[in-house]
Amino acid sequence: MLISLDLVRLDLEHYAYILILLADLLVIIYMVFIERRHPSYIIPWILIIAFLPVIGFILYLVFGFHYFREKQFRPKSEEDRILLHRFMDRHGRIEEDDARKEEASISLSRVITKGGGSPIMMADQVRVFNDGKEKFKALFEAIKRAEHHVHLEYYILRNDRLGSELIDLLTIKSKEGVKVRLLLDGMGNHMPMDRFEELKQSGGNVSIFFKPLIPLLTLRFNYHDHRKIAVIDGHVGFVGGFNIGVEYMGEGPFGEWRDYAVELVGDAVKALQIRFILDWNYASREKLNPKDADLFPFIEDVGDIPIQIISSGPDSARTPIKDEYLKLINIARRYVYIQTPYFIPDESIMDALRIASLSGVDVRIMFPDKPDHPLVYWASLSFIGQLLSYGVKAYTFDNGFIHAKTAFVDDAISSIGSANWDIRSFRLNFETNGIVYDEELTKHNRELFEKDLERCTEITLDAYRDRNLAIRVREGIARLFAPIL
Questions:
Q1: pTM for the full model?
Q2: Distance CA 416, CA 397 (A)
Q3: What domains does the chain contain, in order, with CATH numbers?
């Protein structure tokens, strides 16, 4: 009898193993023949599934399987298209040739306009922040001056001193009659929901973008609203990489925190406003109208600084922000300076950086010296190390943390936003960047970058080649998981 039970158990294990192998085979067939993704995406998944048949299959279902994505986001995509059409009918667009830009900038702006549906608009004032204390001081002051509405969309809201100060300020403004709308990511928000009760009772609205009941067992787990947007009264706006928390002011375990944000005043704020409205209408029961004059007030002095606000996300098959980064590299003639906490690009970005450096362009990448996500950090080192032999220069920001997502090109173009230089930001997260076509501003940003170089350590090719076997193995394993990082 015992022998019979053992045989049954062996048979069950045998059949289970066969089912797992068949499931893994179906996954591979789906990737190769139905999705038809690039080999650089498929091969790592095949290796993961081959070495970890069960875990690899589960990882693919959570991080790689996007069959239901189109159905999930189709209502949002269709509504966004209608509202954007209404927005463009009302507010029009500026032609590329009228935006006082060089030919290279015009080429970039056309890619963004046609690929991302992002028109050129003008700002009267543009101010850059790379220090959290200064950024939050400016944001809080703008909120205090609000008379009609405050719209905030942030990935992370910490349950700390800064987060509490923000909620208290929003509650005060709501009691004054200002309409407050706060949109937070379901995974990134750390503030208890009961902390919003006074704000909501005073008339403020709080909505959660993707609130998963069981995070690891839902398709929404893989998609985050990673945007950082603020719009005050329709004519002052902020976009960048800062979330809400004391660590973004340098008061966390990583010490000094380097990040960037842009404050816009003028007509270009309308592009941030429509972005917020599209996301708010999806996440909230309230439906805002892009033809509402209170949300898009008449601005007499629209300004003369060309701006494009570009967004991307899993609700579209296109990858506008990846295209933006790719085009920025391709049009660079003198330099392209990049800051990013995570560097896990696809093959097209790697090729563009390699070719730019070989062409004589000064390509520099700055990223942290301390990992907040070790596996991502090790994979990033692997990709950066590959570029060193082509003349790309890489630096670690010492005794602090680089959270900025920036690109500065040829004293002409500055890109500042929420999108990291990684596959997740290109395809899975909802992201927003601001592109400023301005010589004076970009020169200022280049000088800030060069000042930060003084506290950086360069990763030389010799030092990278001398790393020990354990580090090489660690980086190789981490790179294998690049598609899900």
A1: 0.87
A2: 18
A3: 2-64 (no CATH), 69-109+119-308 (3.30.870.10), 320-484 (3.30.870.10)
